[in-house]
Amino acid sequence: MSGRIATVRALAFRGLNEVVRVPGAAIPSLLAPTIFLLGFVSMFGNLTELPGFTSDDFVSFVLPVMMLQGAGFTGAATGVNLARDIEQGWFDRLLASPAPRPVLLAGMIASASVRALLPTSVLLVVAFAIGADYPGVVGLLVALVFVAAFAALAAAWGIVLALRFKTQSAAPLMQAGTFMAVMFTTSYAPLELLTGWLRAVATVNPVTRVIEAVRQGFVAGEVSWALTWPGLVAVAGLGAVLVALALRGMARSGR
Amino acid sequence: MRLAANARVVAALGRRSVKQTFRRPQFLAPILLFPSLLLAVNTGGAGRATEIPGFPEVAGFLDFELAGAMLQSTMLVGVSGGIALALDIEIGFLDRLVAAPISRSAMVLGRLAATAALGVVVATWFVALGLVFGARVEAGVAGVALIFVLVSLSAMAFGGLGAALALAAGRASVVQGIFPLVFVILFLSSAFFPRELMLEPAATVALYNPLSLIAEGIRAPVIAGISAGSLLEGLFGIAVVGGLGFALSALALRRRLRTG
Amino acid sequence: MPAAIETHALARSFKGDVVAVAGIDLEVAEGEIYAFLGPNGAGKTTTVRMLTTLLAPTGGRASVAGHDVAGEADAVRRSIGVALQEAALDPLMTGRELMLLQATLHALPRAEGRRRAEALLERVDLADAADRRVGTYSGGMRRRLDLASALVHEPAVLFLDEPTTGLDPVSRLTIWEEVQKLNDAGTTVFLTTQYLEEADRLADRVGIIDRGTMAAEDTPAALKAGIRDPRLELTIADGGADRARDVLTRFGEVAPAADGRVSVSLGGGRGQVAAIVRALDDAGLMMDSLDVVEPTLDDVFVAKTGRGLDDQRAREQEQRERSGDEQLVVEPARQ
Fold this sequence. Notes:
The complex is a heterotrimer. Chain A has one domain (2-251). In chain A, helix 3 (58-88) crosses helix 9 and helix 6 packs antiparallel against helix 9 (206-220). Chain A is 78% helix and 0% strand. Chain A has ten helices and no strands. Chain A has helices at residues 2-20, 26-44, 58-88, 90-95, 101-129, 136-165, 171-183, 196-204, 206-220, 225-251. Chain B is built from eleven helices and no strands. The radius of gyration of chain B is 19 Å and the shape is elongated. The longest helix of chain C has 16 residues, at 169-184. Chain C is of the alpha/beta class. In chain C, a hairpin with a 5-residue loop joins strand 12 (254-256) and strand 13. Chain C is elongated, with a radius of gyration of 24 Å. The chains are: A mainly alpha, B mainly alpha, C alpha/beta. Chains in contact: A-B, A-C, B-C. The interface between A and B is large, with 43 and 39 residues.
């Protein structure tokens, strides 16, 4: 058992090399969510004037979206990196070892979860500086747990695609998938204010529950079980499906 | 004779650039896919923005957003052209071209032609997308033609900026790292929202941002009609970006050739 | 004694009915060095990928270290060390980190993993470079590191896919010596190569693979002996060539050789050389030089397959085979 944990840790650390050991490589992914936040607030900040908008502070309202967006792109990058590892033959090294496949998967996913906390930290600092509401310790912790979990989901998604296509050319698919998952929700406005098709999509999109769970602390200033458990269920459900698909992809990688 | 030979070189280089983009989904997809997705979310999520007091008279929010999506797309054309050029530098293809008896202008024109062609693809895609989802081009066929011209010119202008970046950095990963910057400049313009309704300090920046002029130039035929004023403003914005791009490219190329 | 590697009608085809390996039977004994010799695209890599559980066979079966590659993949993976073509190493890791990761993947206890990593790094002469990133290593250093990493868990069977392709002669020699030492210590080695010299020098037995099937298999000496007799090549001093030919025909089949020399087959073995020299001397013919030329594995290869080892079309076939489907152009981007 301790050997398996060691494997997960070793693979997660290797994943961190991508940001720690390549000079400058971390900067775009570190800053992108913050840039998005500033841009969105500047452009759409006046949406709060619409009757029925549940918050008068657009920064606090979209901050959770940008946190998850950053986590999503970090996860997608894990998929792109796996595709590169497959192309270059590195992944064969892992597959030819007796390490259990779920352990290999856990290692890659864990690195995404840890990496996702970097852009989120930058984002939070900037957001608080421009007036986002402090969600309280519990609210912040809940948000961070969901951010890490969502990065894991996005990583699993990227891994599924990487195992399927085995080429970095699939990168836009990985990124677009997580982008849509996060944005086709109550990302810009409460459900009631979304127009036709987006309202329909956001209603059934499980990521809407995740966003609402992260958002509760920032917008309402308190955490309630009623807004938390749907998020947990959404993460668990998506996780079960994506992990199963990823494991299937691994098992079939030599077919 | 010389002219014909040069034309053949331009055509060959242009064809290669276009193929480079179309054969690699990871190049082409971001150009059309990401602006389309952002367009979808913007119209779905902020569609009710037209109800905010002070929003300009438009048939729908999609009509308003189309220009922003096209502008974003042409900026991505510029970035991806820059990445392609940087890769050419990395693998030594540029050196081969420079060493060949090809005039510098033919090299530049080849790439520009390819960029303009991508601009046409971008304009076609978004006009079609807009029409399918219920937008209307108020200025009719002439308006659509004008959009094609402005979008192609805009693609060429950003192509110049992308080339400058590639020539200065010489590495694809650096050019790729500029990607997020595309959004900064774009968000600080009136590409996706009326300038008067943006929050400060972005609203002030947008006032002086040449991208606002380009976006509004492309937008006018969609939501209002052809007017000399907005057309000239749009062309002026493109000229600013393009002039900057080509001046920087020339500088960077000269430095690159001098230092080897 | 059980065979270290055993295959029966092992086959693999890819999408679009590309048959890479078309039914191979082979048996490698414990402690043997077995070389798979063939041009690019012959099916070498595909075979190795099947034997190392990276690729599922589409026909036949194979067992390694007594375990079925399809049904008991985990047991196979515990028994084998693998160093694949074009050493896939992460340029961002240091040599030591790679060794420790490999030890972890094989679930060695931490202290034990460290001990073996150090010992192996020392052994392949990378101790000084152990804390440098692999990206700064030379080609030879990378192969040595890759080899060392395949040994961390002391595997019973070692697979080396083209271990020296692209290496300079000195680095190649280092790898050969290391492989020889490992084998002396009891490790079974299965290697693929397109270098005849490599197969000749290292292998106890050689399998010649061509277009997915086994064209010939034996010890290098027997393979060479099997295709033709050794030949005696002579340079006859001026003007005597025609008369020499008449003399030589008495001993065997005569043919012109390079540089105006003449050669004769030694059907009766090397022992005939003395008799030939005497006969030429009796005829008053002077010789400037003479050499006995043994057939090479190259000759064996040409004899068995009708082609040389360098075949460009085959090279491209291998490319497709490795990826399993169409190759896409790819940027070396890091995210």
